[in-house]
Design brief:
Length: 365
């Protein structure tokens, strides 16, 4: 049985983050296909003592909870652990951890690297961190046996920068929607079905949730929100000035903050929203947007390349940073009755994605 060891993620299950959601959906499916899969978790994020979940082995390693160091230290320890476990393939996610792809190769293991996006474009990183992330992208792209990219934007980036043309385009996926009514939870939050706009992501600068709050506040001042509320679902991994200011401003404007949610609560929020908004400046291929599309929600998103690649209607996009236009698009949604939007989600099916990834594994073996 082929043994796969996964690192570069904080862990699974029910851990906040796009890479974490990706791994949570993908690797149980791969395990069911007959592969021996182990996910190495960062112990700070694992709020359980699970050793196995849905057929995936879970191994927790201690790492410092410090955003500048935890990923690389964890990956170093995870690669050594993978060698001890007798891994046939180490599957490394994201460009930071990819800095250690050469180490895994030198230890005699095959490496698959999934590029989830150019993280050096994220606002939260300083010059030194951005430099290391760029180096990680270079090391992963040049030395991994196989490279997976989650969008055409990233595939072209690796062709232009490194001349690597043999990457595998495998999109992020969208889990089957679970339509949920949860009136007790809505009562707790003080919201009504189809009576709120939903933003759903981590509270980090590149998601630009401050722009969403500012746009909604403009409508409040103009008396255009009616009974519609703004709900932000998510939180920060590391509380910082940005997340504190965002929460403070949101509370001043009467925005509903749910904190990090999964499971029934998340499904109910997606089931009952009137539209979904993602004003971000950086994405790989946003799983949160795909999830909202799965629930047939109208979407309002920034016009960055990753969002444009999803192929929404032109009126779903606004120019990044244009708060006035974002406010106008929110108002257009508020003054209309809710109408579901039916998207073509065929290429975002996780079962199909799992089969594509195992074909990459088989190419190595």
């Amino acid at each position: 049985m082929t043994k796969i060891v996964v690192t570069g993620t904080r862990g699974i299950p029910h851990i906040m983050g796009g890479v974490e959601t990706h791994c949570e959906e993908l690797f149980p499916r791969i395990a069911k296909m007959g592969y021996d899969v182990t996910v190495i978790r960062r112990h700070w994020y694992a709020q359980d003592e699970l050793q196995e979940w849905q057929g995936v082995h879970l191994v927790d390693l201690k790492t410092p909870k410090k955003k500048s160091f935890e990923a690389i230290i964890h990956t170093f320890k995870a690669i050594l652990k993978a060698k001890r476990l007798g891994a046939d393939i180490v599957h490394i996610h994201a460009i930071g951890p990819a800095l250690l792809v050469p180490m895994a190769r030198l230890l005699g293991m095959k490496v698959v690297f999934t590029h989830h996006g150019p993280d050096y474009d994220r606002d939260k990183w300083g010059v030194a961190a951005k430099t290391m992330l760029r180096l990680g992208e270079r090391m992963g792209t040049r030395y991994a046996n196989e490279v997976i990219v989650i969008s055409n934007v990233i595939r072209q980036l690796l062709i232009d920068k490194y001349g690597r043309r043999d990457t595998h385009l495998i999109y992020n996926g969208m889990a089957s929607p679970e339509i949920v009514d949860f009136p007790e939870y809505f009562q707790q939050l003080g919201i009504q079905k189809r009576g709120y706009i939903l933003g759903m992501c981590r509270f980090v600068p590149e998601k630009k949730l401050d722009h969403l709050v500012e746009a909604f506040h403009l409508l409040q001042e103009e008396g255009k929100t009616g009974d519609v509320q703004l709900v932000l679902a998510g939180d920060a991994d590391f509380e910082d000035d940005y997340s504190r200011k965002l929460k403070s401003k949101a509370k001043e404007c009467g925005v509903v903050l749910t904190g990090f949610v999964k499971g029934r609560k998340l499904h109910s929020l997606l089931s009952g929203a009137r539209c979904f908004v993602l004003p971000s400046s950086h994405e790989g291929l946003p799983i949160a947007l795909l999830e909202a599309m799965g629930y047939e929600l109208p979407a309002i998103v920034s016009d960055i390349p990753a969002n444009l690649e999803v192929g929404l209607s032109s009126d779903s996009y606004f120019h990044l940073g244009d708060v006035r236009t974002l406010a106008d698009k929110l108002y257009d949604n508020i003054r209309q009755d809710f109408h579901p939007v039916r998207y073509d989600m065929s290429k975002y099916d996780w079962d199909h994605i799992a089969r594509q990834v195992t074909q990459v594994y088989e190419a190595i073996i």
